[in-house]
Design goal:
The complex is a heterodimer of chains A (190) and B (227). With 190 residues, chain A is mainly α. Chain A has one domain (2-187). Chain A has helices spanning 2-10, 13-36, 42-63, 71-78, 82-101, 108-123, 126-147, 158-161, 163-187. In chain A, helix 3 (42-63) packs parallel to helix 6. Chain A is globular, with a radius of gyration of 17 Å. The mean pLDDT of chain A is 93. With 227 residues, chain B is of the alpha/beta class. Chain B is 31% helix and 24% strand. In chain B, the strands form 2 sheets. In chain B, strands 5-6-7-3-8-9 form a 6-stranded mixed β-sheet. In chain B, strand 8 and strand 9 (197-203) form a beta hairpin. The model of chain B has no long low-confidence stretch (mean pLDDT 93). The chains are: A mainly alpha (190), B alpha/beta (227). Chain A binds chain B through residues 1, 3-5, 7-8, 11-14, 64, 67-71, 73-74, 76-81, 189-190, and chain B through 41, 44-48, 61-62, 64, 67-68, 71, 73, 75-85, 88-89, 91-93, 95-97, 121-122, 129, 136. Chain A: Keywords: Membrane, Transmembrane, Transmembrane helix. Chain A: It comes from Paractinoplanes pyxinae. Chain A: This is Integral membrane protein.
Chain lengths: 190, 227
């Protein structure tokens, strides 16, 4: 089952594009950041922008099932035990994003990608899930931090700015998103 | 052997019961909206019934360890992501059930898609999509086939081919259940459903009864004769 899910990810052109562009953008911005501010970690500076790419990768990994053509039905016919299927999907996305994020030397992209995968599985639409994710990371989080500085330990992206304060939230958000997605998927008629 | 036992789903299905036996083509017939697709989806574990059980060889679909080797199902659409090639789609499906990769070429050959194997599923015509869906259904060489409206989107040659194919499958001893709103079909047994209830079942001859054709019997059973 994991092999099949991996094949699905690597033969999906949109996912390959999103992953490739995220890679290139992270490298270029990190290079520029290194020149502009040598004292800061250039990768983390770049990820403030390119985390959106990892979000998209996570979303696409989940929403590919719900695009026209009805792949979700083929998936469930091949693997009707939904808890096992969800587990296989989770392992596959974690493995694929871990490889993709390895050069950054941080696990933060994995956190963003899993939140994206959870949103994608719940909303079943790439557009809706990417919009929701971007609003969360690029609008809600900065607003909360600006207005209520005390909320920092609870926000999903604090880990990127202050690794020591945000570690718990960086794990809790993706776990919550994936658990809700799994519960919804288990109950839903496909 | 397919057994549907008093399957209900709120406001859609009311205690639907019937069987489909090996070596026979069972036509599951009814007007649009009668509950054919809902019944098939419950049989395949895609939807949940509010009551009743649906089993294949005495097991619910979801408990089959390698379901593609027991049941081949054709539903609306090809089931393939539009950006994936036919071969890539069949490849992950084969991998999911531990089927040999050599089987992919065989099923593409059976449905006549060998030439289009590398083409993206999104560029397929409606008829080709149906053929790809059928290729996926045949991957595990299953003894049971469940086909929801298999003639939709096929041209006359495709319809002729599908009729011959289904008869051949039954002759090989497979259980074939096909739902359709068409009536001129090569079926051995018939189950007629209307407004979520089974209104007649038996051999094609039994259901036809006194009527001059299956079509006349169907129209009388489903109350459509008044049209």
């Amino acid at each position: 089952m994991i092999g099949a899910e991996l094949l699905k990810l690597v033969t999906l052109p949109s996912l390959r594009w999103a992953a490739g562009l995220t890679w290139v953008a992270t490298a270029l911005i990190a290079l520029a950041a290194h020149h502009a501010a040598p004292s800061e970690d250039p990768i983390r500076t770049a990820l403030r922008w390119t985390q959106a790419g990892f979000l998209v990768v996570g979303v696409l990994a989940a929403t590919q099932e719900y695009e026209p053509g009805g792949q979700i039905r083929a998936t469930l016919l091949a693997a009707p035990r939904r808890p096992r299927l969800m587990a296989a999907k989770g392992v596959t996305v974690i493995a694929a994003v871990a490889v993709l994020a390895a050069p950054t030397g941080t696990l933060y992209p994995l956190s963003v990608a899993l939140v994206g995968a959870g949103l994608g599985a719940i909303l079943r639409s790439a557009l809706a899930a990417v919009a929701a994710g971007l609003i969360l990371y690029l609008v809600v989080c900065p607003l909360m931090l600006g207005r209520f500085a005390g909320s920092a330990p609870w926000l999903p992206d604090t880990e990127l700015l202050q690794a020591e304060r945000g570690a718990v939230a960086a794990v809790a958000w993706p776990v919550a998103a994936v658990v809700v997605a799994a519960l919804v998927f288990h109950r839903r008629n496909a | 052997m397919i057994s549907i036992d008093r399957v209900s789903r709120s406001r859609i299905l009311h205690e639907v019961s019937f069987e489909a036996r090996p070596g026979r083509v069972t036509g599951f017939l009814g007007p649009n909206g009668a509950g054919k697709t809902s019944t098939v989806r419950i049989l395949l574990g895609l939807d949940r019934p509010s009551a009743g059980t649906a089993t294949i060889n005495n097991r619910p679909y979801a408990s089959l360890p390698r379901p593609l080797t027991v049941v081949g199902a054709l539903l609306d659409g090809s089931g393939a992501h539009r950006a994936r090639s036919a071969r890539a789609h069949l490849r992950w499906m084969a991998a999911s059930n531990g089927l040999p990769r050599a089987r992919i070429g065989e099923v593409l050959e059976i449905v006549g898609l060998t030439e289009a194997a590398r083409k993206r599923a999104g560029r397929f015509s409606l008829g080709m999509s149906r053929r790809l869906g059928l290729a996926a259904a045949l991957l595990g060489d299953p003894p049971v086939l469940v086909l929801d409206e298999p003639f939709n989107g096929l041209d006359p040659a495709g319809i002729h081919w599908m009729r011959e194919f289904l008869s051949r499958c039954a002759a090989e001893g497979r259980t074939v259940l096909l739902s359709s709103h068409l009536l001129d079909l090569p079926v051995d047994d018939v189950v007629v459903i209307n407004r979520g209830r089974v209104v007649a079942q038996g051999t094609a001859a039994e259901v036809r009864g006194e009527h001059e054709s299956l079509e006349a019997a169907f129209l009388s059973l489903t109350g459509a004769a008044s049209w």
